[in-house]
From TrEMBL:
Keyword Membrane: yes
Primary localization: membrane
GO BP term (any one): GPI anchor biosynthetic process
InterPro entries with a match to the protein in the record: Plno_GlcNAc_GPI2
Annotated family: Belongs to the PIGC family.
Keywords: GPI-anchor biosynthesis, Membrane, Transmembrane, Transmembrane helix
Localization per record: Membrane
Pathway note: Glycolipid biosynthesis; glycosylphosphatidylinositol-anchor biosynthesis
Listed GO CC annotations: glycosylphosphatidylinositol-N-acetylglucosaminyltransferase (GPI-GnT) complex
Protein name: Phosphatidylinositol N-acetylglucosaminyltransferase subunit C
Membrane topology classification: Multi-pass membrane protein
Entry's transmembrane regions: 51-72, 84-106, 118-136, 165-185, 191-209, 221-239, 245-266
Species per Swiss-Prot/TrEMBL record: Amphimedon queenslandica
Lineage, top ranks: Eukaryota, Metazoa, Porifera, Demospongiae, Heteroscleromorpha
Ranges in coiled-coil conformation: none
């Protein structure tokens, strides 16, 4: 195409000597912007954020579940351990419901419906526990533990720690945790043990994270620190009854994952390269209206 005497304008209401799909290269580079909404955080800012506590809490939740599993695995079918665990789960459910009503997460008018659905879920779970306990009974123990470890690692990798991200998927994270639970219940001595463990896992991996996310803005940072310390001490106490080096392993694993995650986040955020330009969808800011 021959050089035009008139400069190109980005308008549609005037006929120009350029094709409709023409775009001036200089104008394109002028409108191109890199890393427009990227906020670079230092290591101190990341450490002081609640995300670190959420990560520690979720790792402690996984170890807490494994500790309870080992407790139930060693108990007999006539032991009171499952019944005690059921009572604790019911108490936690009532506590979660009470906290939800107090913080207006759900209204008081919906509390009866929530209780009814909880009762139906418990009845359904008690009826399906014998089936769930036999799903993986024919699989070898080594294969089950391999699948359990992979599932829990996927749960931790895709879990929502208070912020959104590309890898964040609450549904996938929850499904991975439930799959790990189903893999292990076949090694319990009775269906009552399986029912207790699954109910405890639902509260631990489904209800508690939701309540924690809702309480993010209403609770202080000191509260989450105390909760993290409580979970860690509880895990240490339960593991010390089964493994001599269990508490040391939990301490090393949690801090190793935490340090690697923090260093990787701080280093890799400088490699982000997002481009923005006229092709982006228009975002309407209601505050400007």
């Amino acid at each position: 195409m021959a050089e035009s005497s008139k400069p190109w304008k980005k308008i549609l209401y005037e006929r120009q000597e350029y094709p409709d799909n023409y775009l001036d290269e200089e104008q394109f580079r002028k409108d191109l912007k890199n890393n427009l909404f990227v906020e670079i955080q230092t290591i101190n800012e990341v450490i002081q954020s609640p995300v670190v506590l959420y990560l520690l809490q979720e790792m402690n939740s996984v170890f807490l579940f494994l500790s309870v599993f080992w407790q139930l695995e060693e108990s007999t079918s006539v032991s009171l351990s499952p019944l005690v665990l059921i009572s604790v789960c019911c108490f936690l459910s009532c506590l979660l419901l009470l906290s939800a009503i107090t913080m207006n997460i759900i209204s008081s008018s919906d509390s009866f419906e929530c209780i009814k659905q909880s009762v139906l879920f418990i009845l359904f779970l008690s009826g399906t526990s014998p089936i769930l306990r036999t799903l993986t009974e024919s699989i070898s123990t080594d294969s089950l533990w391999c699948m359990t470890i992979i599932s829990f690692l996927a749960h931790l990798a895709f879990h929502k720690y208070g912020i959104d991200g590309v890898l964040v998927s609450e549904a996938f994270s929850l499904n991975a945790a439930i799959f790990a639970v189903v893999c292990l219940v076949s090694r319990l001595p009775s269906s009552l043990h399986a029912f207790s463990l699954i109910l405890f896992a639902v509260i631990l991996f489904a209800l508690l994270p939701q309540l924690r996310n809702h309480c993010n803005s209403g609770m202080s940072y000191l509260f989450f620190q105390a909760l993290t310390l409580f979970l860690f001490l509880l895990v240490i106490t339960l593991l010390s009854t089964h493994f001599d080096y269990g508490p040391l392993f939990v301490f090393i694993f949690c801090h190793f994952v935490l340090v690697v995650s923090l260093v990787a986040f701080v280093k890799l955020q400088f490699l982000r390269n997002t481009i923005h330009g006229p092709w982006d969808e228009a975002a309407i800011d209601l505050n400007d209206l």
